Each structure stands twice: as structure tokens, then as C-alpha cells.
Amino acid sequence: AQSVTQLGSHVSVSEGALVLLRCNYSSSVPPYLFWYVQYPNQGLQLLLKYTSAATLVKGINGFEAEFKKSETSFHLTKPSAHMSDAAEYFCAVTPYGQNFVFGPGTRLSVLP
Amino acid sequence: EAGVTQFPSHSVIEKGQTVTLRCDPISGHDNLYWYRRVMGKEIKFLLHFVKESKQDESGMPNNRFLAERTGGTYSTLKVQPAELEDSGVYFCASSNSAGTGDHEQYFGPGTRLTVT
């Protein structure tokens, strides 16, 4: 069975600081991994995805994530936080492109 | 290209009543998924349609939930009778053929259901 853990339900960073949101997964088969973002009162928007190509994946809005098989991790980073990055972030895994298993989410606050 | 749409955006009903949620996937997407996020919990899979057939309904919580996708286009999710624990946000997603491509699912804005 697949599972996803996200360390930290709430992360606060200062504007301009590094953003690091952690995601670890458990999967019995090579996984496809995704990060989605949910802004207030909106749906889920894809940030980036890993589908067995390059291990360093670049997404929208300056975000990137690195797939590390040995650590079963797919942490999300952004060099410099903007106020507009304040949202809830979800890591998800899917085997063979079937239903997603989501992590519990991390709410990111950006302080001025 | 229009995205995934869901109706209504909010619904407030009393315990014991019936509610029907609707999802319109992206045109041409054979796969349609329903997910639910109960307050404070993670987003959980409910079921997966391929065209009009239920591919996987292992996440449906009980027989008070009925999902349909007649004609393989839009889908409805009916809760009858609703209970307090059914409150949450119901997301719909669609994708191209599973097992091919990049497996990305496109999500709708969700329907927030409140059962009082």
C-alpha cells in the first residue's frame, strides 16, 4: 500500500527566505509523485510532478522538488518565498497512474 | 479549454436530507475521480470511473453514497441520507487514459458540504 507523510502541518517563513516542505512516501512499486497547491477558496493546482524522468523536477512559480529514492523523499523547495506563496501544499503518490494517495497537507505562512 | 467544474460550490443541509453533487470533467477525459477531505484530515480517494464504468470504488465510505456517470460524461455523487460526519470538501478530478501519459489529474474547485 502507498502512503505519504508531510512533516509539519504548518510552516512559517519570512518573505525572501528559503521554503522547504517535506514529503516522504511509501510505495511498493515505482511511484509517480506530485505536489499540488490549494490557495484560499480555490481548487487544487498542480505545482510539479515526478514521473520517472529527471529526479530534479522544476514546477511553476519557482518551485522545484528532488526525488530521492534512497530516502523515499520528494521535498519541495523554493529559494525565496513570496507573500503570494501562502497556501496549503499537498504531496501525493500514485502507483501506475491510478487514484492518488495524499499527504495530510502543509499550510505555508509567509511573514513580511 | 474549460477545466473541471463542480456544482454546487457550497451546500448546507440537515442531517437526514439528501444532497447530489455534480462534476463535469474536462472534455475527452475518460477517467473521473471523486475525493473527499473531512475537516482536519487528509484528502481521501472515494472512487474512480473509466468512462461510465466504476473502475475502483474501494474508498466509498458506506452505502449512503451513490456515484453515477451515465454516458461517460458528467458524474453525480449522491449522499442519502446525509450524516454529520459527511461534512467536508468533495473534490472531483479527471485525467486522460490511466496507465499512459503522465498521470496528472486535473482537479475541480470542490464542493463544500456542511451537514447540520
Describe the structure.
The complex is a heterodimer of chains A (about 110) and B (about 120). Chain A is globular, with a radius of gyration of 13 Å. Chain A is an all-beta fold and about 110 residues long. Chain A has no helices and twelve strands. Chain A has strands spanning about 5, 10-15, 20, 25, 30-40, 45-50, 55-60, 65-70, 75-80, 85-95, 100, 105-110. Helix content of chain A is about 0%, strand content about 55%. Chain B is built from no helices and eleven strands. In chain B, strands 2, 4, 5, 6, 9, 10 and 11 form a seven-stranded mixed beta sheet that branches. Chain B has a four-stranded antiparallel beta sheet with strand order 1-3-8-7, with no helix packed on it. Chain B starts with a strand and ends with a strand.
Question: What's the topology here?
Answer:
The complex is a heterodimer of chains A (112) and B (116).
Chain A: E1 3-5, E2 10-14, E3 19-21, E4 24-26, E5 31-38, E6 44-50, E7 56-58, E8 64-68, E9 73-78, E10 87-95, E11 101-102, E12 106-111
Parallel strand pairs in A: 2-12
Antiparallel strand pairs in A: 1-4, 3-9, 5-6, 5-10, 7-8, 8-9, 10-11, 10-12
Chain B: E1 5-7, E2 10-13, E3 19-24, E4 31-37, E5 43-50, E6 53-56, E7 65-68, E8 75-79, E9 88-95, E10 106-107, E11 111-115
Parallel strand pairs in B: 2-11
Antiparallel strand pairs in B: 1-3, 3-8, 4-5, 4-9, 5-6, 7-8, 9-10, 9-11
